[in-house]
Structure formats: structure tokens, C-alpha cells
Amino acid sequence: MHLSPSTAPRTVRPGEELPLFDRRYAVPFFMVTALFFLWAMPNNLNDVLIRQFMKSFQISRLQAGLVQSAFYFGYFCISLPAALVLRRFGYRIGLVTGLLLYAIGCLLFWPAAQANSYNFFLFALFVIAAGLAFLETGAGSFITQLGDPATSERRLNLAQAFNPPGTIAGALIGTVFIFSGVEPGPADVQTMKSAGTYASFLHSETLRVITPYLVLGTVVFLFALALFRVKFPSPTLSQEQFPHEPRGPVTSLFRIPHFVSAVVAQFFYVGAQVGTWSFLIQYVLDYTHQPEKIAGYFLSGTLLLFALGRFVATALMKYVRPNRLMGFLALVNVLLLTVAIGFPGWIGLWALMLTSLCMSLMYPTIFALGLKQLGPDTTLGASVLVMSIVGGAVVTPAVGFVAERMHSTAWGFVVPLVSYLVVAWFAFIGSRVRITPAEIRREEALRVSSI
């Protein structure tokens, strides 16, 4: 079975609407789309883990932020090797490899909890992220290429629409099965210490993470077996689409201005998203004084808004250019975060939650705009864009650091505010395609021939 979609948008007759994807390949399209749900769950389980580990390991906001650092550093380290595996062995093998790493990382939570080791948990999160790097690199580029280039943003936004339900599921699972609801005050802590039961209480809180991760790991392993049996359109779509064009080294991509701008924008966007969700529970605890389980439900609520925003954005892109829509919503988020910082409390909380509604289209839109006209370098470009997810590892501790220095969780959100300004710049200015890899290679060939 082979797939040879057009390398450029075809002419559309008046009244004709381009299909999002070739119906002959519905099975691989929907199976890969299901991955968007699966990889979202650990991302937002992390937000619950941060609060849980602050309690069970008695660590600071900055130290707890290392959960996201270990996780997104895994993306950074593995994305390029993942792209090489995808190039060499194809999408099916690459995606199954990612699922197996994901499952192994989840299963490592059992020995980490038994050992009561925070560093072991960080290693397990790194392994999970290594698997997700395969999934995001492969699934993103696969979806963008499975149809006409003119509909790539809409196609990826549709697939990404199944990502928010996964984030909601992750947050709800963490809230219900990881949070115990037991929040001892200073007097209770002193009583347990006097009775010699405080250490066992903290360890019991750590053990609560085992069951959700063991179940998730089992489900992911079974899905890997199912995906292995699916016949994919071709081993490497980007090479089959462009059989007469050589693929360049990764360094050649950094001569493409719109691609470089997308990498920078994705770094700051992911940092803003992860930094906001990671400390939303703490914001609720600090300024509305609700218990941790209620705070967890507020996290689920903001993720529901995120899901709603993804579907609305996909529909609006039929009428509004994706880059302009993204730029407008990035500026709206700047205003919302200004409110969250200036008015900590219920008003600030609702403003903070609404940022999820506006941010929902940003990741897939930046991804698709960055891959525009990369030709046979699409898979390699996707891996670099996934590497930029390391922004979550950098920005999240920065939010914690600012919050610690200012003695205010609210002031920590200055960091995501600045990040959205970068996204707005990319949307309005940096996303314009100025030159493509093929044009660079032609220029180099002409220069060599003229010598």
C-alpha cells in the first residue's frame, strides 16, 4: 500500500471543499489520532504529581518543578534519535517503539514508589517522555502529510482535538486516585511526629501513585500490540512524496527562517502551557483556600476549556487564517495573565483558567506552520519542533523560581505572560515562508556549478 499525496495544494473548483485526509487510509489516520489522547494523560498527571510530591517528599515549588524538567528533558534528548528511527524504519515501527518506552516508564513507578526515591521517579518520567518523543515526532508529521498541504493545519488541529480529552482524563485520574484529601495542619504533623507515624504517612502518600501508572502502562502496552498490526500507507511518507529530492542534514533546517521562528515560538508556548497548569493547583490553594481535591477539579475544568477551544479553533480556521487567529488569542492570554497576577483570588483564578481556552490551538498551529514546505525534511523538522518542548523543562522551574523569590505564586505567571508575547510575534511576523530547503539546495547547486 503506497501513498503519494500532492506536494503542493491542488487547484480547487468553486464550491469544492478539500477533504482533510484520503479516505483510503482512515484506519491508520484514526489509530494515530488515538495516540494524541494517550500521550496527553501523563502530561497532566505531572501537574498532580507536583503537588503530591511537594507533600510526600516535603520539597519546595522549585524542586517540585523538576518533575517537568525531567519529563521535558526526555523529549529534548530523544526527539532527534526518534526522527532517525522513523526515517530508517518508518512510522509504524517508530510509533510502536514510543508506546513500549511509554509503558516501561509507567511500570517503573512501582519500584520508584517502593524505594521512596524522588530521583527514581524523575528517571521514570524521563523514560515516559522518551516514548512520547517518538509519538509526537511521528504522529505530528504523519498527520500533516496525510492529505493536501492546504489543509495541514486543520488536519493536525482535528487530530490534536483528541489531545485535550486525554489531559482531562489525566488530571481527573490524578485527582481521584492520587490525592488522598488528607492535608494535615502543623498541629497534626507534630502529633504524628510525636507518635512516630509521620514518615509512614508520607510514604503512604507516595505509594498512591502506583495503581494509576500500572493501569496506564498496561493499556499503552496493549495499544502498542494493536498498532503493530495496522498496515501503514508507506514506510516514510516524506521520502515517497518527494522521491527526487535529497533530504538534508538537520543543520540545513536552521537556514529556514519560518522554521527557526517556529522552534523558538514552540519553546515558549510549551513553557507557558506547562508552567501555567503546573502551578494552577497551587494558585487555587494559595488564593481561594480550597482543599487539594477541589483544586484538582479546577485543573480538570481548565483542561475542559482547553478541549472546547481546540474544537472551536478548528472550526474558525475555515474562516480566519490560522496564524492571525493564533496571534489574536496569544494577546488575549497576555491580558488574562495580567488579571491573574494583579487580582489574585477568584477573579484571577477564572482569568487563569480562561487562558486554556485561548492557548488550545497554539501547539498544532505552530507545528504545522513550522513544517510548511519542508518537503522531504518534514520528519526531521518535526523532530526538532518536538525537541523545542524542552521549554516545559526550562520555563516551569522559572515560574517556581519567580514565585519563590517574590513570595507569590501569582507573580510567577509573569513568565508565561512574556512567553505569549513571543507566540504573538511568531503568528504575525515569524511564520511567513521566505525560503524552502529545496530552494536553498538549488541555490547551492547553482553556486557550485558556477565555480
Automatic annotation (TrEMBL):
What keywords were assigned to this record?
Cell membrane, Membrane, Transmembrane, Transmembrane helix
Query: PANTHER family recorded for this chain?
Result: L-FUCOSE-PROTON SYMPORTER
Q: Pfam families given for it? A: MFS_1
Q: Where in the cell is it found?
A: Cell inner membrane
> Topology in the membrane?
Multi-pass membrane protein
The signal peptide stretch is: none
Q: What cellular component GO annotations does this protein have?
A: plasma membrane
TM ranges are 25-42, 62-86, 93-112, 118-135, 156-179, 210-232, 253-274, 294-313, 325-343, 349-371, 383-403, 409-429
User: InterPro entries per the record?
Assistant: Lfuc_symporter_FucP, MFS, MFS_trans_sf, MFS_TsgA-like
The identity of this protein, by name, is L-fucose transporter
Gene Ontology MF, one: fucose:proton symporter activity
